[in-house]
Amino acid sequence: MNNQDLKRLYNHVGKEIGWDFTRVHAVSSGVKWDFYKLVRDFCSPDDMLLDLGTGGAEQVLTLADAVARIDAVDNAPEMVRTAERNIRHSKNRNVFSHCLDNKDIGELNRYYDLVTCRHAPFDVQELKTVMKEGAVFMTQQVSEGDKQNLKEWFNRGQAFTIVDGTLQDRYVKELQTAGYKHVQAYNYDAIEYYQTENDLAFLLEHTPILGAFGKDKREYEQLHAFCEQYQTDQGIKTNSKRFMIVAIR
C-alpha cells in the first residue's frame, strides 16, 4: 500500500474502532515484552512524553498517571478525533492529541524526556529537535517476517518482498549515525492463535497486513482455506514478529 492508501485505511479504521483490537480473540506464545508496560519503567512523575502514531491513544492513556504531560500525535484526522474522544472519556487532563505528521513534530515547540513510537515511521533528525539531552527514545515496529504464512498464502502483504531485518538495521544505523547513544535492538517471533476465522478476518480488514483485504470478496474464500490449513487445537496459527529499539539522545 502507498502512503495515500495507508492514510485512507487509517482514517477509515480510526472512525470505526480507533486502534482498539480488544474484540479480536487470540492468544500468543513467545511474546517477550509489552511495549507500553516497558515504557512505564522509564517514566518519572515530572516527565514530558511524546507518543508518535498514537492511533486512538488507547495505549498511551495507560501512562497518564506516570508522567506530567503526554502529547499524542497521529497524522490521520479520524484517528485523532477518536483519540480526542478517548481522552475526554478518560478524564485525564494531562493528555493532548495533535494531528501531525511525524516529520512535523517540531511544530509542537516542546522538549521531551521520553518519546515513544509504536508501529509508525519516524525521522531521527526531527526527533532530535524535540528531545532533551539524555532523553529516551523507544520504538516498537512490525518486522518484515510478521504473518509470514498469511502473506505467502495470498502472495502479497506488508513488506512481503523485503528481507527480514531490513527495517531494524536501517533504523539502528540511522540512530547511530545521528549521534544517539546506547542504541539497543531487541526482537521476538511469537506464535499467534486466532480463535475463529472471523477474528482473523477482522484483523485483516482493519490493518495493512495484506493491503486492501476484502475488496475482492473471493479473498474470504482464500482466507477460509487458509484457516482450514492452519487450524490447530489452540486456534488458527500464524506469527507475530516485532522488534524494539531503545536509544538515548
Outline of this structure?
This protein has about 250 residues and is of the alpha/beta class.
Average per-residue pLDDT, rounded, comes to 94
Biggest sheet layout? 8 strands, mixed
Number of strands: 8
What structural class do the secondary elements suggest? alpha/beta
Q: Give the termini separation.
A: 32 Å
Question: Overview of this structure, please?
Answer:
- This protein is an alpha/beta fold.
- It is built from eight helices and eight strands, in the order αβαββαββαβααβααβ.
- The protein has helices at residues 3-16, 35-42, 77-90, 124-128, 148-154, 166-177, 197-205, 218-229, and strands at 26-29, 48-52, 69-74, 95-99, 112-118, 131-142, 181-194, 236-248.
- An eight-stranded mixed β-sheet has the order 1-7-8-6-5-2-3-4, with helices on both faces.
- α1 (3-16) runs parallel beside α3.
- The longest helix is centred in the N-terminal third of the chain and has 14 residues, at 3-16.
- The model has no long low-confidence stretch (mean pLDDT 94).
SSE layout and pairing:
Layout: H1 3-16, E1 26-29, H2 35-42, E2 48-52, E3 69-74, H3 77-90, E4 95-99, E5 112-118, H4 124-128, E6 131-142, H5 148-154, H6 166-177, E7 181-194, H7 197-205, H8 218-229, E8 236-248
Parallel strand pairs: 2-3, 2-5, 3-4, 5-6
Antiparallel strand pairs: 1-7, 6-8, 7-8
